[in-house]
Amino acid sequence: MDPNKAINAGLIYNITTEDYIQFLCSMGHNTASIRKVTKTTTSCNKQKRQALLNLNLPSISIPNLKRDTTVMRTVANAGNINVVYKAIVNSPYGIKVRVEPQILRFNSETKVLTFNVSFISTQKLHGDYRFGSLTWTDGNHFVRIPIAVRTIQFEY
Predict the structure, then answer these.
(1) Cα separation, 56 vs 87, whole angstroms
(2) Which whole number is the average pLDDT over 91-99?
(3) If residue 19 lies in a helix (H) or strand (E), which one and from where to where?
């Protein structure tokens, strides 16, 4: 680990207090208990139930892959103004991983982009965690996020 690389990160995964609140909501915590802890007046947004998997962290963890699952991440460009990043996927064993889009193009007007990562199990039984990664690169920066997926009894 080289902390000096953080100065020239390339891409940043921004996250807000509201993102964490919706994450807690998706875990089943009620609005009253969340307000008490966060000292906010925010309410749980029922439309954001997918927040459990979509918390915008620079990692992806799917502890119970039962069916095809897609997660969303958003990155902000922290490097050169005009830059193109390409996805390199190292799939966990027994899991097909698809990234859409596979290319992120940043410029003076486009500074933040969202991408989806889809997971499809090729195994139909319970399994241990399998590990892989997704790396975004512009040829100079290599922004790697780890992936951990555990398949449980697959639903047809």
Answers:
(1) 17
(2) 95
(3) helix 17-26
Q: Render pLDDT for 29-69 as a digit per residue (tens, 0 to 9).
A: 888 888 888 888 877 776 555 667 889 999 999 998 988 99
**111 CB-near residues (< 8 Å, 6+ apart):** 76, 77
CATH at 129: 2.60.40.2310
Distance (Å, whole) CA 154 – CA 156? 6
Could you tell me if residue 39 is inside a domain? no
pTM across the whole model: 0.84
Q: Based on the structure, what is the number of domains in the chain?
A: 1
Domain residues for the domain of 88 are: 51-151
Output DSSP code: residue 35.
H
Amino acid at 44: C
As given in the structure block, the two tokens for residue 106 are 């940043």
Q: What are phi and psi of 49, to 5 degrees?
A: -65, -20
> Does residue 132 contact residue 90 with C-beta atoms inside 8 Å?
yes
Phi, psi of 135 (to 5 degrees): -120, 130
d(CA 129, CA 62) in angstroms, rounded, equals: 9
